[in-house]
Amino acid sequence: MSSLSSALDHALSGLMTTASRSAIASRNVTQAQNEDYTRKSASVLSLPGSGATLSAVRRSIDQQLLEKAIEASSISAARQITVDAFNRLSTAIGEAGDGSSLAGTLATLQGSLKDYDSDPSNDAFGITVASAAAAVANRLSAIAAEISAVRNDADQRMADSVGHINALLDQFKVVNEAIVRGNGSSSDLADNLDQRDSILKLLSAEIGIRTSVGSSNDMSIFTDSGVVLFQGSARVVRMQDAYGPRTGGSVLVDGVPITGPGAVMQVHEGRLGALAGIRDSFAPALGRQMDAIASGLVQKFAESPNDPSLGLPAAPGLFVGTVPPLVPTEGEIIPGLSLRFGINPAVDSDTGGNPHLIRDGGLAGSAYVYNTSGHASFQDRLHALSAALETLGQIDPSLGFGSEGSIRSIAGQSAGWTESRRQSAQSDADVAGATASRAAESLSRIAGVSIDEEMASLLDLEKTYQASAKIITVIDSMLANLLDVVG
């Protein structure tokens, strides 16, 4: 009798274990298309004298590979943000050989000045110079506006990213606490662990992270630069409101700056790191280059008084931009000038201006007239202006283009600087994307669900279930016969 009872216990435990394993396999099939789901399997424990039981639900996961995949995804997100920004900036500047690019409009202006110099009395040539100058000013202003738009966009997206980071950290806290509470118990924590990993993937897309797991299966999160984001509780991430044409508010974690020029522990990965680089480094550098060109144009085309004894300063001529009017010294860069840059309305014939003032001078007033005799064939001023765009002069070494150059050379080098960084960013993005893709594929091979394998497993489990059920039926019949004999 006891042997039959023991056999029945074994059969029943086998039946229950098989049912649990079947439920897990069905769960795998149901979640097969969920990228955040990891394949589950049963850990079966043999019990002396009473068969087997389900001791735990295990996840098919390689933690090191998961961490590499998360890091690769974070880097890829950052690289794509950077290349998108440089695509916008490169398009705004244009290619050097394109007539509508900044370099192209400067070449057109120089050509029109030489034409006017060859025939100073030709009104049409004067109008052409004014039109070419307007094209330069419009292009430069458009580039400056696009740089500003790229920075504004990056700043807004940084604020959005900070909001997402805080929300994800709050979600992480809830899941992490559930895992800690269930640690060491018989609770099935596999789905909670999947959820925690899913939050980490989303978080890493926003900011570069590193993690560590404690003895209670609790997890701490750090930025890629080592600042604590979560350790028992979520740290407060906030963004300062300060914003200007060349500066932006820093992102702080518990008061520690992780973006901005003064950040010692600056983040580099994820959207936040890339956006900070665009807002605080790349875009301001290009904006400074445009300001250098605008400042150089105002300085090179400025007018000097015809009587030095008057003690008058140089005054803006063909190109203007500051209020009150100001002429920078050679190599000086007036911050933000490219955003306010334009031509002197006194030469615009469409608004009643006189293009011959380019030839004669006097855009700044009668004290600045060069052609004091009023001759229509006066060429001295046009000679000087036609050479101004290629005349070497002192430039600010901080631009990275040396200490001497011309306006046209700065424009060409600026276009090359932008395109070089765009190509480098694209190459980095391609490599990062491929690395992230390979890491995700490798992780999927380990953690992903194969429906064919799960269906085959279900068929095997069905046979096992039927065998256990048959054993129970036989034992039941034997017990019934035994009771009949005893009775």
Query: How many structural domains does the protein architecture include?
Result: 2
Would you identify the regions where 5 or more consecutive residues have pLDDT less than 50?
none
Strand-residue proportion: 5-15%
Oligomer: single chain
* Overall pLDDT level: 87
Distance between the termini: 14 Å
How would the global form be characterised?
A: rod-shaped
Helix/strand order: HEEHHHHEEEEEEHEEHHEEHH
Question: How is the largest sheet built, in terms of strand order?
Answer: 3-4-5
Helical region count?
10
Number of strands: 12
* Main sheet makeup: 3 strands, antiparallel
Q: Which percent bin holds the helix content?
A: 55-70%
Q: What's the gyration radius in Å?
A: 37 Å
What is shown here, in short?
57% of the residues lie in helices and 9% in strands. It has 487 residues and is mainly alpha-helical.
Describe this structure in words.
- It contains ten helices and twelve strands.
- The radius of gyration is 37 Å and the shape is rod-shaped.
- Helices cover 57% and strands 9% of the residues.
- The strands form five sheets. It has a three-stranded antiparallel sheet with strand order 3-4-5. The protein has a three-stranded antiparallel sheet with strand order 6-7-8, covered by helices on one side. A two-stranded antiparallel ribbon has the order 1-2.
- Helix 2 (63-93) packs parallel to helix 6.
- A hairpin with a 3-residue loop joins strand 1 (40-47) and strand 2 (51-59).
- It is mainly alpha-helical and 487 residues long.
- The protein folds into two domains: 2-60 and 454-486, no CATH class; 67-435, no CATH class.
